[in-house]
Amino acid sequence: MPNTIRTGYSAKFSLTAPAVKLKANTSGTSLVFEVTTASGTSMVMRYRQAGSSSWSESTPLNSPQTGDEITISGLTEGETYEFLPLATSETAGRGTRSDPGNILRIVPSSGSALEKIKSQVGAELATWVPSGNIVIGTALRGKLDLGQKAALISGKRTGREREASGTIRSKYEITIELYYSHHDAGERENVLDSLAEEIAAHFDNNSSSFSGISGYFDTAADKVSHDSPGRDIGRAIVILSCLVID
Q1: What is the H or E stretch that residue 118 is in?
Q2: Which of 64, 160, 176, 229 could bond 38 through an S-S bridge, CB–CB 3.0 to 4.6 Å?
Q3: What's the rounded Cα separation, in Å, for the pair 136 and 16?
Q4: pTM of the predicted model, to two decimals?
Q5: Which residues contact 49 (CB under 8 A, 6 or more apart)?
């Protein structure tokens, strides 16, 4: 009987999930993503309306490079969508894909957050951005007192979490305060809800420090840790910034 050689080794090809950021909100029905980290021979963007069990996919982007773009069109303004970038590789086995990375939750919006806030509170606004790039340490709340205000939107650091990749990200809470006395309780709630949606939809969540803001937040993303299909863990991550509306 011929000798049989058994080994305890097996090979598994794995791909690192690509990273993207929302580059521009080109319209209420179209979003443009920029590749920030690429791996594999191609990548696709899976997307679905929040709550749906089925995914749609973008056209594969072959040999993606940092800075390449993926455009997703045909979305409905005001609806919440989930986006999941995946690396693919035919060389690592037909149809091999990366493990799920981070889901981006986005509410497409056709206008500037600040313009919408201004129209809702009916006042001119001023923005406050600290000089330089200030890394957040302990819990901090930023406020700029310019006298009587129509509304104040501020944020504070509430903790940190470690992603599966080992990256540590800070977590923040956004606080909105209204100063218009003629708003009744129902109107105030509607304005607050709308402001909260716009802030969540326009904060750049790829940083844990202050960054320059020139007029409005142009990134619409909620990043949520994702470890298996249908299971989301962690909390929303946004940068700490402050708007003062006079």
Answers
A1: helix 113-121
A2: 64
A3: 29
A4: 0.44
A5: 76, 79, 80, 81, 82
